[in-house]
Every structure is written in structure tokens, then in C-alpha cells.
Amino acid sequence: MRVFLSLLMLAFAAPVSAQSPSSPDYTKDSSWLCLPSRSDVCSTPLPTAALNPNGYGSVGKSKVAKDPPIDCFYVYPTVSRDQGMNSDLNVSEERTAAEVQFARFASVCRPFAPIYRQMTVGAVVAYAAGANIDQPAALAYGDVAAAWHNYLTTRNNGRPFVLIGHSQGSVMLQQLIAKEIEKNPTLAARMKLAIIPGFNLIVPQGKLVGGTFKTTPMCSREGETGCVISWVSFREKNAPPEGAIFGITDQPGMTVGCVNPAQPGSRDWVPFDSYWYARSSYPVPGGPIEWSSEGPPPTPYLRTEGLVSGKCINDGQRGYLSIHTNADPKDKRTDRVGGEVAVLGMFLPGWGMHLSDIEEVQGDLIREVGEIARK
């Protein structure tokens, strides 16, 4: 999602703040961004307009289900611009991330999203420069694990659940699955789906399981449960280069797993049902997007169907979701979408379309969670 690298290249000129090793008190509702039956970012309707080839269409608002039969547990991506290696517990960017990536899922599941002391954008920069981030990573995961334990013991009540994350959030959930869920068959049976894009999930070439996870497979067909949907997005004809942070592994015989999020198991091009945050100020190749020749969007969010398509590619140690924009210069709708990460005015080829991993296919993901919930 929104990785604020361009603003924080010098984040570690400042000293690391002193922090208690103890996790937040997740018995307190204030330690959560989203909880069911509460007024918060996940219960706020999001104004959304349809964007069709003939321009802007109907306008509506996202909905919140009254009593859905399944839970969604969400861990947000790297968004904190706080100084130091770990964020504090005062949320701002975190709330925006939850709104853009997760709030719509409240239409099909009960939403749970803990506040955690994630590794900051500065920590990502430090890691890229060779710094050791083991301690900040352990602190972040300790918070997520503590929130998970509180959720299971006091909030879940034995219900089935879906895990949702992105980027650093997917890193946290990969660890949670490996350390907590796979080792508990009863708990694993209640995990109906894990949606964890934006970070490499490693599998043996030609296999569905056996790298990052020992027993939890990638999804291989529509409607399958107990499996993982994972992908990293790269624009068509822009495969992950050598040394890319996403989409390629240095482990011989292994590859980066890819599940087409709109149609698990497909190896063909599949059109996507997308929800875009149309008021983003982040750089886009080619300059700001003109979403329609009619003028600025009437709402902060736009829904497009079939504007982009995706196809899973696995080529040796490379694995990624190739994104194609179905451009038509003759219609009113934009022929471009964003997603690349920019640093100091330059786009990083090794990150692909990291910022749009969830937006590009959010409608399909919500549909799939809803279908699982109704089973």
C-alpha cells in the first residue's frame, strides 16, 4: 500500500525512541482500529462512483453487514512515518490504510484490525541499506501475536475466520500461520482463507506448499477453503528484475507463489473488479491520472470492472501477477492506473505495482469472502 519512502530517506538521522517491550493492552477496545458493532473506520460508509467506458455512473456507499457468519482479521501494511524503527500507537496513516484496504470487507465479515507497533517506513529504508531489523521485527510481530491471542480467547467465540494483510501485514500473517495456526489443526480448520499479497510467499517450483508454509497450500480453485491467496503485482512486460525485492527468490528450485486473486487456479488473463482511491497524491508513471474525460471524480473512491486484468506468471525463480490495462483511447475512462513506488522522483522496478496490490482486485476478494461466508 502507501509506502512513504520518498518522504523518509533520512528517517534514521533521529534516535530510536525508547519503547516498552510489552504489547498494547488488547483487552481495551482503544487498541483496535476496527471492531464489529462499533463506530470506527470500518463502519463508515465509503462514497463510491462507478467508472465505466462511457464515464462516471451510479454513486453509492459501502455497506456494513449486520450479523455476518465469519470474521476478518486484518494487519495493515508499512505506512507509519514515525521516527525510529517502530511506530507509536497514535494512528493516522494506519487509519487511512484500513479505510482503503479493509473497510469494505465489513460488508461480508466482522472486522478486526489491531493497532500494532509496526516497523516504520524508515525501518524499511534502513533494512535496504543493510541495517539489522531483527529486534524491530520481533516487536511488531509480538504485538500482532498478542492481539491474535486476545481475539481468539475473548472475541472470536469459535467462529470461522479469514486473515487479510498486505506488505508488512502479510509478513506478520505469514509468521502467524506458521507459528500459531499450522501447529493447531483445530484452529487451522477454522481458517477459511488467508489473503496475504504484497510479500513473497515461497513454494517449490510446480508445487502449492512446502516453502513458507509446511501444510497450508496456495489456493488452486475457486471456492477452496483452508488455503492462501498470495501475489505480488508487476505491470505487463515489466517482469521482476534480478535483485528485485518482490517477485523473485534466490533459492534454487523455489519460486514466488502466485494465486490469481480473481479466479484462483487460473493461469489465463482474468478481468478484475477494482476499487481505486481516486484522491491519492502518490506519483504515477506518466503523471496524475485523469480518471474520466468528464472531469474530476465525484467521490473519493471509484469502482471499475474490467479496466485491468491479471495473469499469474511463474518462470523459474520468478513468480508474480502480471497486470494489463485494457485501454481504449476512444472511451471516456482512463487508460492508466498507478501502483509503482517512487523514491526521489524515480520509480523502483523491483517493487512492481506494490501500491495497488489490493485496490486492483478488491471487489473480487470481497465477493470470494462473501461466498465462503455463505457456505
Radius of gyration: 20 Å
The main sheet orders its strands as: 1-5-4-6-7-9
Structural class: alpha/beta
Average of the residue pLDDT scores: 93
Give helix % range: 10-25%
Biggest sheet layout: 6 strands, mixed
Please tally the β strands and state the result: 16
- The H-and-E topology, N to C, reads as EEEEHEHHEHHEEEEEEEEEEH
Could you say which overall geometry the principal axes of the C-alpha atoms support? Answer: globular
Amino-to-carboxy terminus distance: 31 Å
Q: Can you tell me about this structure?
A:
By secondary structure, the protein is of the alpha/beta class. The chain has one domain. Helix content is 19%, strand content 22%. The protein is built from 6 helices and 16 strands. The strands form 4 sheets. The chain has a 6-stranded mixed β-sheet, sandwiched between helices. Strands 2, 3, 10, 12, 13 and 14 form a 6-stranded mixed β-sheet that branches. The chain has a two-stranded antiparallel ribbon with strand order 8-11. It is globular and about 55 Å long.
Brief synopsis:
This protein is 19% helix and 22% strand. With 375 residues, it is of the alpha/beta class. A hairpin with a 2-residue loop joins strand 13 and strand 14 (318-325).
